[in-house]
C-alpha cells in the first residue's frame, strides 16, 4: 500500500524510569537529574552530519509540560500526538492523530531524505504504541534506582523481545549518581530486529 516511497526509520524510545516504573507526577518529572537530562538531549539531538534531522514524537501533555523557552532545539522536528487538538501547537512542526501517522511522515518525501531517527519521548500511551510498532528497534531506559511518588508509568514490556544490550559507545556504563540519586543507563534491543 505504501509503494516504494517509504524509507523505514528506526523508532527509539527514551525514558527515565524509577522503581515501580514511574515516569511522571502531575505533569512533571519527579526528579531533577541534570546529567541524565543531558544524556537524553545528546541522544535525541544527535545526528550523523549537518543537515540531517531527527523527529521527536510527543504526547500532548508531555509537549505542554516543557517550557517553551527551551525551543527551538537544534536538529529536530517535533510531532505532537493528539486526537482533540485542531492546530499544531506553537513551536511544534506536526500534529498527528496517532504514532504511525507521525512515523510515516518521517518515512515519506519530503522528510524521508532528512530524518535519521524517530525518538519517542512519552508519555505512557505513546510509549505503548511505539513498543508495538514494527520499526521500533531500541529502548533507551535510565533506571533511576529510587522510589518516587508517581502517577504516570512506563508500560510493561516483553523482556524476551527486548533484551538488554551492552556496548553502545554513546551510553555511559556503570552506576551514576547525582543529587544523591543513583541511576544507570540501559538499552534494550529488539531481538527480532525491525519488521516491515
Ligand atoms: N521520565 C521520563 O522519561 C518521562 C518521559 C516523558 C514524559 N514523562 C512524564 O509523563 C507525564 C506525561 O505523560 P502522560 O502519559 O500523562 O501524557 P501524554 O502522553 O504526554 O499526553 C496524553 C495525551 O496525548 C495524546 N496522546 C497520547 N498518546 C497518543 C496516541 N498514541 N495517539 C494519539 N494521541 C495520543 C492524547 O491527547 P488527546 O486527549 O488530545 O487525544 C492524550 O490525552 C508527565 O508527568 C511527564 O513529565 C516522563
UniProtKB/TrEMBL annotation:
The record ties this protein, via PROSITE patterns, to:
DHFR_2 (PS51330)
Q: EC annotation?
A: 1.5.1.3
> Its pathway?
Cofactor biosynthesis; tetrahydrofolate biosynthesis; 5,6,7,8-tetrahydrofolate from 7,8-dihydrofolate: step 1/1
Q: Does the keyword Transferase apply?
A: no
What EC class is this?
A: oxidoreductase
- Keyword NADP present in the record's keywords: the answer is yes
Highest taxon of the source? Eukaryota
What InterPro entries would the database entry show?
DHFR, DHFR-like_dom_sf, DHFR_dom
GO biological process, any: folic acid metabolic process
Entry similarity comment: Belongs to the dihydrofolate reductase family.
Family annotation (PANTHER family): DIHYDROFOLATE REDUCTASE (PTHR48069)
The name of this protein is dihydrofolate reductase
Question: What is the organism of origin for this protein?
Answer: Zoarces viviparus
